Amino acid sequence: MRPGNLEGLIATDQESAPKTDKDLPFARQVLADVMDPEVPAVSVVDLGIVRDIGWQDGHIRVLITPTYSGCPATEAIEEAIRDALIAAGFVQAEVIQRLDPAWTTDWITDEGREKLRAYGISPPSGSASKRSLTSEPPVVLCPICNSDHTERVSEFGSTACKALYRCCDCLEPFDYFKCI
Ligand SMILES: [Zn+2]
Asked: Which N-terminal stretch is annotated as signal sequence (predicted)?
């Protein structure tokens, strides 16, 4: 998996040189290309589930908060993160889950929301923290024609994290990334 020439170089560095923070932006770059297994349009960084990247005991350690606890994708995400870092030349990578505070859709970056829309998924509407104060249904915009004239077809879309909607104007069905 790992290129042999890189392996030698970085292994030496891991043994002798002190760890510096300059490798951390590179690690973040690597993670920006690790796509969410359920929504391949957005990366784990776009979703805001990468909480911290740091060094511990000579290896890189990534702190993640899964989007939904019990989401079957979580294990796949951990593995994808580890594999990507090791493929990028890090000798060892550890992924730690932190469930508190719980992830909310508010952590999805603006870039992530844009990518969701471009992929045909309506991003979460409004703020999760404000949403809990009201029981009003969210205004869900059609990702295709941007109409707010939409209706919910099913509470669950292609995955439990999404609901299935339909646009009443262009009549296209689409997934809405639920606000939590
Ligand atoms: Zn539409």
From this structure: none
Cα–ligand 1 centroid distance for 157 (angstroms)? 17
What is the CA(180)–ligand 1 centre distance, in A?
24
Dihedral sign, Cα of residue 18, residue 52, residue 66, residue 85? negative
Quote the CA–CA distance of 52 and 62 in Å, as a whole number. Answer: 6
4-97 CATH, one of 3.30.300, 3.30.360, 3.30.70, 1.10.750: 3.30.300
Task: Name residue 167's beta-bridge partners.
Answer: 150
Say if strands 50-56 and 121-122 run parallel, antiparallel, or are unpaired: unpaired
Residue 177 Cα, ligand 1 centroid: separation in angstroms?
16
Which DSSP letter does residue 17 get? S
Residue range 107-157, pLDDT digits in tens:
999 999 999 999 999 998 877 665 555 566 788 999 999 999 999 999 887
State the span(s) of the chain assigned CATH 3.30.300: 4-97
Instruction: Report how far ligand 1's centroid is from the alpha carbon of 150 (Å).
Output: 8
